[in-house]
Amino acid sequence: MVGINTTVEEPYYEIEVSGEVDASSSIHLDEAIQKASEQHKKILIDLSKLGYISSAGLGVFISYIDDFKKKDIRLALFGLNEKVAQVFEILGLNELIIICSTKDEAKEKINAA
Amino acid sequence: MSQKVKIRIWFLAGLLSWLLFIFFDLYFILLDKYEMKEAYTSVLPQVFLSTFILSTLFYYRYKITKAESINFLDLLWKVFVTGLITTIASLMIRLFFTLFEARAITQNPITINFFYHIYVALVVIYLVSTFVVWKRLILYQKSKNLIQLWNFFEYALILSLIFDFVGHKFNTDFFNMALVFLTGFGIVLSFNLKWVAYLNFKQKWKSILFILLSGIYLYHFLLNMINFSGTEVLVFDLIDRVFIIAILIFIFLYAGISVLVTLFNLPTSSVFERKLKEAVDFQKLSQSTPSGQSESETYDILLDSSMSAVFADAAWLEVKEGDHEIICTRNISEDKIEEIKQQITNDDVKRVIDMNLTNGTPPGRVFTSLSKGEFKSVFALPIMVKNQQIAAMVLLQEVSDAFNREMVNIIRTFVNQASLTLENSKLIREAIENERYKEQLNIAKNVQKSLLPTDLEGNHGFDIEAYSMAADEVGGDYYDITPFEDGKYGLIIGDVSGKGTSAAFHMAQMKGIFHSLSQLNLSPADLIKQTNSALAKCLEKSSFITASYYLIDVEKQHIDFVRAGHCPTLLYRAADGTACFMKTKGMGLGIIRNSGYHNYVHSNALKYEPGDLLILHTDGVTEATNRDHVQYGEENLKTSLLRHATKSPSEVKEGLIDDLYTFLDGKKLDDDYTLVILKFK
User: Which residue among A52, A65, A90 sits closest to B565, beta carbon to beta carbon?
Assistant: First the structure.
């Protein structure tokens, strides 16, 4: 079960993901990111309430990496708990996606990139 | 004793009784003629007549089978035929007397009595057989009370046989009392005519005919009886027997009442027939699937049954299921249907016909009238399957206001049954399809099993054990080991993102890629790079694979390895009894699908000592959660390993799995998981 909340705080589009992202709920995450990327170039994803992410959920982020690079859309994740952060790290995604601990840091890095 | 033997015995008993009866009576006449009375007792012929009657009764009881709704006419036919044969026989006796009317032979008491005895046999046979048939008809759909009453009547009749021994003459007080008593019984019993209701119109007419003819035979026998009685030379007279008269009256009564009741039932028989047809139609509808009929046959049965139930002049049934559209029509052209559709103004009916019902509740009003055109009354009903309208049935009548509430109920029942039948057939189809998928998956499961190495052979460098389990039939975990010519071993473990069928396909692709690349004896870093570029072309966009590759040199006790995003391998050092996860840098396969990936491939190396353990696993193990949503985690795996590390590889494997299952406490794993255990020598 996943909960997705979106808020627009120009120029940022913020997606808050809560609960668990598994194979079936990853579709909602995908839809949210897809929608965000249609209008905005700076996407912040708040994962502080995310308890678990499966490989399918990771796949969603991975599928946008190339696309966003081409369209110059910037994506930053923040607030990951230790376990979730480790999942990203093991897979090596921390080297491809901006992952920070706070929202301010995320904004800073998005603008710097 | 079988039925046949019983019938034969009673037949012989009857025949013998009658022969003895005739013999003694004639013998008595001879004695009388020569005035030698002393040797004679008049009881004997009486006894034999009674046994003859009883034998006949038992004979027919076994001979005439129980009444069923299908054989009422057969029973009546039997009465008719028996009557015909006995009447013809008695007519022949009459003919004999007419032919030789003035001769001495017809005046001779012996001749008269001889023929009279034959005549008695005919009367008894006809009366008793008819009596048994009446009994069967009366006891059709019997109640307990009715059976008691009937048994009482039968016992009373048998008692009357004994009563007749006393020899009360016809029309004496005792005789009349007994007769009134028995007749009273007969009247009460004669009003049990349930069988009449089950006859259809034609059968009713036939029954009336048969019963009337049986009545005529009876009248004929009665006339003859009186006629013989008038000769006044009879040693014995049927008219003086209460039994015979009572049974005769009873048969007359029942025949009369039956004819009247059947006659009065004639006009309503069509209603009964219709109700019966409705029931049969209903049954047909409900059984139309199990017997393997197609859906269109169900529609046909529904349409025909509905039409006949409400006397519709025309009808159509329109089915819309996805793209395919069927239309069944009766007495109406498709052009006309369009015309009628245009004319309908009632919203509810319109919605049914246009098949716009989506919320699942059929509308209340389902009939309407039309002002012009051939048909004045329209009756539309939706056919719903799983709360979706799949069809509309429209019944038409030429007269206005032809449909009423009762008809709506009948048709609703039909439609509901048809819906149920259609739903069932759909479910059956789906079940069959599911079964097929399951079978396919089973095949896939077996195929996939063969993709993993079946027996891992140890060598002088290390022993190896592995365990893999998929959450679904097929999974995305992969491991393999390849020996190289230079004494090295290539060991790979991989995990495709997601699970199930798509993961299984990618796993198979990975095996292909790994197998071809491993022939080239590449360094771990090169192998991972090549694998990534090969997978880049065939992996789905959102799919990726994590893998670790180990190139083990058993001679130098040296391992080169690359971790491509796969969960870190657990290394146990026997020297100090510690274990650690080798969290080296690395990125999953298929995440970056160009040469940029090369920057993220990091080569690592380690030395090992005998007794060291390498535990390769997939995230299904560390991410397994118990009922309290707690993950098994790396710590638990490590603790578990430390507990079993000194055991043999297969015991280590068992120990690790046992500990995992103990943690899960019965909860099913929802991801694929794999364990590969290497113990160095």
Answer: A90
